Amino acid sequence: MPNISIRGFWIYRNLIFGFLLSLFFVLAALLSYVWTPFDVTQIDIANKLKTPDQIYWLGTDHFGRDIFSMIMVGARTSIAVAIVAVGIGIIIGTPLGLLSASKKGGWLDELIMRGNDLVFAFPSLVIAILITAVFGASALNAIVAIGIFNIPVFARITRGAALTIWEKEFILAAKVAGKSTTRISYEHILPNVMNLLIVQGTIQFSLGILAEAGLSYVGLGAQPPMPSWGRMLADAQTMVSFAPHLAIIPGTAIILTVLGLNLMGDGLRDILDPKLRNSRS
Questions:
Q1: How crowded is residue 138: how many other Cβ atoms within 10 Å of its Cβ?
Q2: Does a cis peptide bond (omega within 30 degrees of 0) precede residue 225?
Q3: What percent of the chain has pLDDT over 90?
Q4: With contact defined as beta carbons under 8 Å apart, do 190 and 94 qualify?
Q5: Which domain holds residue 238?
Q6: Could you give the CA distance from residue 250 to residue 241 in angstroms, rounded to a whole number?
Q7: What is the CATH number of the domain that holds 15?
Q8: Does residue 212 belong to any structural domain of this protein?
Q9: How far apart (Å, rounded) are the C-alpha atoms in residues 38 and 67?
């Protein structure tokens, strides 16, 4: 654990700043389940396009909806989609990476890796379009699209780290002890690659926020009346000249959330990587 001191703060500043930024939006998302200043589905044309004031803290949109409330609920949507999508990638991709590493050079290893290459050939937006064409646009389909794209990411990270660990002497000792490759993978390999998975998970979480915003921007994510940062940007693009706050506020929310997660990922990497930790000590 980092020391609570000026020097410790300087060393782990990325982690601290990233954690605080991320925590702010997570708390806003959680709070939106029980309270928002206004109902996000409430249309009030008489108060449309208001600039920030004492009543509407961040102003209102072209339907008179409170932007602050929409940002809170939009955080809930983006974070939920990113968490589930990254969870899909970890739950499916990690076992595939462990299995591929344990079968290095075999037909199963080749099959898994070529399958990963196939998924990488289709960005999450293309996958979302294909899914939407069959099942329709929704937050659930955005989760599936982003989750599918995350699977090969975690599979490759896991396989690359596991291949190095398979050459270690303690793995040879486990083989001599009669342990199966499956047992070795989960008892010895997985704990040693967990640090990489945690850091990569943080990075993919931030990319998931961006992907959800991008999908919602083109109408493939969460559907009305559920607010989404990406759709808020799409709605604001024709009103930037006379109501710039409609684009600036959700855009800033996306930037700060992604920045916080990336800073936290860098901080976790500094802590979990012994080489980096020693170089900073």
A1: 16
A2: yes
A3: 71
A4: yes
A5: 6-280
A6: 16
A7: 1.10.3720.10
A8: yes
A9: 9
